[in-house]
Design a protein that fits this description.
This protein has four domains: 136 residues, Orthogonal Bundle (Globin-like), CATH 1.10.490; 102 residues, PAS domain (Beta-Lactamase), CATH 3.30.450; 80 residues, Helix Hairpins (Orthogonal Bundle); 148 residues, Heat Shock Protein 90 (2-Layer Sandwich), CATH 3.30.565. Helices cover 57% and strands 17% of the residues. It is built from 15 helices and twelve strands. Strands 2-1-5-4-3 form a five-stranded antiparallel sheet, sandwiched between helices. Strands 7-9-10-12-11 form a five-stranded mixed sheet, covered by helices on one side. The chain has a two-stranded antiparallel sheet with strand order 6-8. Helix 4 packs across helix 6 and helix 13 packs antiparallel against helix 15. The radius of gyration is 48 Å and the shape is elongated.
Amino acid sequence: MKKLLIEFLKEHFNQVVENWSEKLYQIFKDKLFEAQIRTFVESSITTFIEVLEEGDYKIADQYLIDIYTLFARANLNLLEVSQMFGQGRYAVLNIIEKEIASPTDPVILLGFIDEIIEQVLVRYAMLHQEAKMKELKYERDRLAFKLELNQQYLKNILHTSDSAIMMVDENEKFIAWNKGAERIFGYTEKEIIGKPSSFLLPEGEKYQEELRQIQEEVKKGVTKILETERKTKDGRILSVRLSVSRLPASNGSYSGRSIVIKDFTEYKKLQAQIDQSEKLAVIGQLAAGVAHEIGNPLASISSLVQILQRKSQDPFFSEQLSYIKENIDRISKIVRELVDFSRPPSYERAMHDITDVIKTALGIVKYDKRVRNVKFVTDLKNSLPKINIAADQLLQVFVNILINALDAIEGNGTITVKSNYDDEYIYIDIIDDGCGMDEKTMEKIFDPFFTTKEVGKGTGLGLSVSYGIIKQYNGEILVKSKLNEGSKFTVKIPIKLNS
């Protein structure tokens, strides 16, 4: 019977192809092209013949792979694939009934066809299942990798953030602590986990009340943002900005809170410096206005004194007028320097003798009320080489250092200013016999915002700015100091400067 079926399929190959293809095209024309349907039908009949001849279904493996690829692209499910093979069975049956005469039983022939189609469908279903399992495994691995990547990403954010990120459980104990928190507060994760949420609070009822308010509001679902203070491991009090959010449990109940803290200490200092700069700007404008108002009547008084000097014949009277003239000139000089100092600085370079800049700086500092008991000693080298500088910048440097010297001697002592030069550099020494500095302080004196003065009495920017100015000229500021003995600042500036 197998031989008879093989002969039948070969003899009626084209007729079966036409009949089967026509039926499939009517059903699947929205999913498959006519050429694709015809190719499937021809390869199916050819495979059936080969399986019948060899008696081995392994021959159909490549055929199954090809049609699986075709059907997968067309997004056909197993039921639709079964329907396609079912139409093939009917196509063969119709031709058998017309072409096969008795005594051959068409049912037996159809049984062989059914067996082949059934086996092919089973193998196709196994291939389909295996492919889907591989897809599921790939998707599972992809999702697992994505989940791991996201977890690593979140972990990196948590640990590399500059902000302190921490979590507190419902029992008010720390359960999470990132590297940002370690950098800001100094405690390691091991040191902080399990500690109470009040562990970082400074002393005082104010902060305990603040914590109680945070607990109450966050439990209600309110995200709390406030500026406050927190204490570090070494006892420093930091200005911080706090953002606190509720952590819900799986059933929606309160299970703790997340806390994000940003260190606002430097921001606060910077804001204070900006405020101070604005105040200084206003004072500068006011000083310029006052100086001009004083200057005009002084010029009139000076003229009248000179007229009286020329007319007076009395020696005592002439001496007193001379004394008045000297003080008027002194006031006039102060007014001129106030006006000069209140003007916006000029950073245009020109050839200058640094001695003139030093003398101007000394003249400004000598008007400070603290200099009454201060002795100024100068040893300025004659004919220093002129160098290409912005005089206003150098004036700022020398004034800053001299004011620091005044602070160091607290209004009682000696400030010595010397200048010298060699083939490469000009050296300006500013020496005081004041309180001096230890090594730890000397390491930080050029850091921005570092100051040993009380709050409101120093910006911590003077020496930092001065250092930057001298560095622009490829120079240096060298410091020697001993506690309770005094300090020596040496400004070292190259003679040959780039323009």
